């Protein structure tokens, strides 16, 4: 069961790779409608990460600090995707570019923490 959850968690993380590309494609106003649809799917993937990650933490021996940092990062990314969705709707490319750059950095930090469970 654990390997099934980890597999779903990993496939969902691959889908979230969209957020690493977003800063490079969000400068053009024409792109915003399709990016907005993809951003909505991204929020669903974050919920998948929360649910599968919640199951996985119960199976691994991780520190409380690791869990807290992971959840805070996930919530920060979730909040940014929500704000970006609003900015995409308004057609505000410069805000989307700035927010998506911050979001990409947070995603990289999250994957680093995920792949180094004993870092904290
Ligand atoms: C943006 C959100 C997230 C992304 C992109 C993400 C990504 C990943 C990746 C790539 C791995 C595999 C690491 C490896 O095996 O080397 C992993 C493992 C794991 N994730 Fe997440 N994750 C996210 C959120 C969460 C959350 C919120 C939790 C729970 C608090 C969580 C719990 C875990 C656990 C327990 C593992 C397995 C232990 C480990 O290898 O560190 N994840 N995650």
UniProtKB/TrEMBL annotation:
The chain crosses the membrane at residues 6-29, 41-58, 64-84, 96-115. The lineage of its organism: Bacteria, Bacillati, Bacillota, Bacilli, Bacillales. Keywords: Membrane, Transmembrane, Transmembrane helix. It comes from Paenibacillus gansuensis. This is Integral membrane protein.
